[in-house]
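Hey team,

Sharing the Endonuclease III run so nobody has to redo it. Sequence (218 residues) first:
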Amino acid sequence: MNAHTKAILDQLDAHYGREYICYLNHENAWQLLIATMLSAQCTDARVNIVTKDLFVKYPSVEAFVEADLKELEQDIRPTGFYHNKAKNIIACCQRLMALHGGEVPSGLEELTALPGVGRKTANVIRGNIFHEPSVVVDTHVKRISKKLGLTKEDDPEKVEYELMKVLPKDHWILYNIQIITLGRTICKAPTPKCGECFLTEWCKDYQNRQKKESRKKK
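Structure output:
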């Protein structure tokens, strides 16, 4: 780990601590899997409102297998893209029952073979449920990692591999939690609160903006 990366991680640890926090409410692996699927293009807060009733109505993987598609669509409608999400949730639970005895697998290949489950969702499960070091690349992580010079990539999978190279394993999940907090509170898109940020010293966007303003003054 180079000095640039270490300085950023030290600041993140100092401001946000090293506690593992999952923003999606869940009691077990399958609930987190479904909640993460619902979180695509939707806020965690809204997902938590929906799943509060959803997991009472459907208390098991089997219950989702037996769910009526149209009814499930209406149950999850507030999360957006509900046609696809409902179809994928039912298909995912069918596969869990058929191949895994209703249990959520821990392997990346097994998880990404489930309908509607990409690398981001798989890594959320691996990191939060099975405590396997995993880099979760969401919009905050991709955007802010580029600003901090930790990646030059745009493709989430490529960002994931780059971050795996530069971040120590004990920060893989932690970095995601910290950056999400930063992205939601300070480094907001498209209006970041740079005056409140503790990472401006290492932020390429901020440094470039300062240089431009400095040249204007001259």
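The domain at 29-128 is CATH 1.10.340.30 (Endonuclease III; domain 1).

Ping me if you want the raw files.
A.
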